[in-house]
């Protein structure tokens, strides 16, 4: 099975169709997705090099993270396989955007202060492709710079369907149970996502190491709050309490298997 792109480096039609719906940008700006967005901001703002760092946002979509990174004063270049995303991101102040493939970055060695892969590993279903994308990120990052990758937890699809009351449907249950067993989600509209790879927390570290990025650290984004507490996000006071607990527990191994996770390595 091919990963996110064919050998001609085109996004698989099923995945392209999903992203052409334009839902991803809105997902992170409203509802439950805000927690993932805010937590990603929190972790990155603590770890990224000082402004103005040159940041390569690979698989950056329509620029939902590139936008605030540029507003913070970083020099942001976004690479994404969806032309519509690139067109949208190109209109953001301070953001340069172009079409590209995470596995074949057209960048000089050591030219970036940080490379973000906040989406590509979701859709590279073959391990070799995920390692190749991480190795490319390492290659273009300067010594001392950061490689950051986001992954989705292995049981996330099952948890989501139970939370939404859809798990009792045979087709839905079959698809998400298979994703929990193998890591590969054969997604469609019934599960609200497309073809994806869902990681075990420990497996991410071995992929980083095989890409020449040993000693990576992991950060739970939503943690257990991926399962509940959406109403807290609308109340500034309670939201601050929730985000504080999420930060204090972000490195707890027991909480890495929920929602999304960031894995971060410093290039030697």
UniProtKB/TrEMBL annotation:
Xref: CDD domains: AdoMet_MTases
Domain annotation Methyltransferase: ranges: 55-145
Record flagged with keyword Transcription: no
Keywords associated with the record: Methyltransferase, S-adenosyl-L-methionine, Transferase
GO molecular-function term, one example from the UniProt record: methyltransferase activity
Cell cycle in keyword set: no
Pfam families: Methyltransf_25 (PF13649)
A single GO BP: methylation
InterPro entries named among the record's database cross-references: Methyltransf_25, SAM-dependent_MTases_sf
UniProt xrefs under PANTHER family: METHYLTRANSFERASE (PTHR43464), UBIQUINONE BIOSYNTHESIS O-METHYLTRANSFERASE, MITOCHONDRIAL (PTHR43464:SF19)
Protein name: Methyltransferase domain-containing protein
